[in-house]
Predict the 3D structure of the following.
Amino acid sequence: MRWPCFLILFLLPFTCFAQYIITGKVLNSTDKTPVANASVFLNNAMAGSKTDDKGAFTITNVRSGQYDLVVSSLGYETSHQNIMVNTDIRLADISLAPKIMMLQEVRIKPKGGWAKNYEKFKQYFFGNSAYAQQCKILNKNLEDLLDLDYDSKTRVFTARSADFLEIENKALGYKIRYLLQELKSDGIANINYYEGTASFEELKGSKSQKRKWQKNRLNAYEGSSMHFLRSVISNSFTDEGFKILRLIRKPKPDYKGFGPKYNQTLVSIPLVTKDFVKLTDAQGEYALNFSDCLYVIYDKKRAHLGDKDSKNLLLSPDFMDDPLTTTLIFNEPNAFFDNNGIIINPLSLLFDGNWGHRLMAELLPVDYVPEAIK
């Protein structure tokens, strides 16, 4: 188990751009024969490969960080393995268990309900941004692939997929294979959550299309949680355009179910790295740790405001609704993240604001590296 180290914190310049190689072999767990043409990839990343006739694979151009290595093949159970990459890795043989076919329970649902729920699903999965309008699921027979349900009494919407969704994102230039393990949207608590397994590949396009994708990717990256956490590691978040404040949030004792649920006080003194980040005893991992909420502002101009201007911002009646801000609400004492700027235990945090609205349409691979626009 990882533990935060509270005594000392060393944050070095962000030098995580070295690239490594992962090699290994995939075998049938029953008879130890090679499994050919299996997909081997790093979850939510560009890096991936296929096994050859001998079951061997090589994944190149891997950034340092913690990953979920996924092995998938038709007729076999999918394998997951957590790995930490900070050098070239030769993995022990990976055994895939043949899939046992079982009869599935048939759930009878009202006719016409699936199409209505599918419209809800696209909103909760892709969002409502301009990028979301350029996303499309390519699979046929989606009614057999997607299990969708909405409970009108609890106002909870849930979804999961029986197999990988083939998603085309023409805004960012990616084709994504996504196995949706769970999507949940709670209309009363106003909480949306989804998780799954994904592999990314570049769409083919003209030079002008690729320049547009490059620009859109950079736009999706700037101000994102990935951008923030990477800038925290390098201790450069102020220069990158972020300002971090303490938000004291207390439930209203007389809350009646409408209007503001909390009494909130924003402290105008900016936080520094040591106030909310700790090292852990696991190499390449860090922990966000704070007794209250973190209020993150992203704006190249406002991140450098003086105290007087900053106080004027806080006095604004709608400062909490600013689209360039995010409130980080801790569900657990520590939110762990890695060198790639990815939260390892995502349920440890709630994002209220900007980051909470960045859904699948804005999703970048975890090994994304910003490039200068040519």
